[in-house]
Amino acid sequence: MGLVSLGELLAQGKNHLDAPHLVLSGFIALAVVLSLLIFIGEGLRNALDR
To answer: Which of 16, 18, 41, 50 has a 20 to 30 Å separation from 10 between CA atoms?
Structure first.
């Protein structure tokens, strides 16, 4: 069993648009990662501004 990458997940979603669960799983994973990066960046900015 190989490792799963975000790029592979998005590529599978793009190649199989007729399977909504693949598209949604890629979208949700990307949205979660981007949200976490935004929260971490805001936390660092607030910590360093003090």
So the answer is: 41
Please state, in angstroms and rounded to a whole number, the distance separating the CA atoms of residues 17 and 30. 17
2 DSSP assignment: P
pTM equals 0.74
Residues 30, 12 contacting (CB under 8 angstroms):
no
Using left for φ > 0, alpha for ψ between -120 and 50, and beta otherwise, residue 38 falls in alpha
Domain boundaries in the chain?
Answer: 6-49
Check whether 6 has a pLDDT greater than 80.
yes
Indicate the DSSP class of residue 50. Answer: -
